[in-house]
Amino acid sequence: MGVFTYTDEHTSPVLPARIFKAAIVDSHNLMPKLLPDAIKSVEFIKGDGGAGSIKQINFAGGFAKHQIEELDEKALTYKYTLIEGMGISDKIEKVFYDIKFEGSADGGTISKMTTTIYTHGDFEINEEELNAGKEKVLGLYKVVEAYLIKNPDAYV
Hints:
Layout: E1 2-12, H1 16-25, H2 27-34, E2 39-46, E3 54-59, E4 62-72, E5 77-85, E6 92-103, E7 109-119, H3 127-150
Antiparallel strand pairs: 1-7, 2-3, 3-4, 4-5, 5-6, 6-7
Helix pairs in contact: 1-2, 1-3
């Protein structure tokens, strides 16, 4: 098994608690509303959204299952593993995400996401695939951020 880890950082003018509530805690409600063409629905097939829950995201072209490892609303941390569906293949066993939202000096947010990809055998992730995945995550983040900026009373 191969293991490949990388960390991304993104800044936002929105307060950390608002982004956490919108992008993480209420994502099952918010994401299908904001991106109806891409995300058809999000449902918990096990649990209620806390640790041990399994969340299924139904996309226009497939699905992904996330096993929630930790959701800490005080520390603003979220850890989950992509266990099935889009992103998993005969080459990729699972993908673990560790996300933390922190306050920045200017009153906004610094979000840090560490991604660990577990591959079968000696399979290497190429830079192009990696960047495509990063762009999708950043795109989702930007949609939530734009919504929160436009709706200052949402998720306060």
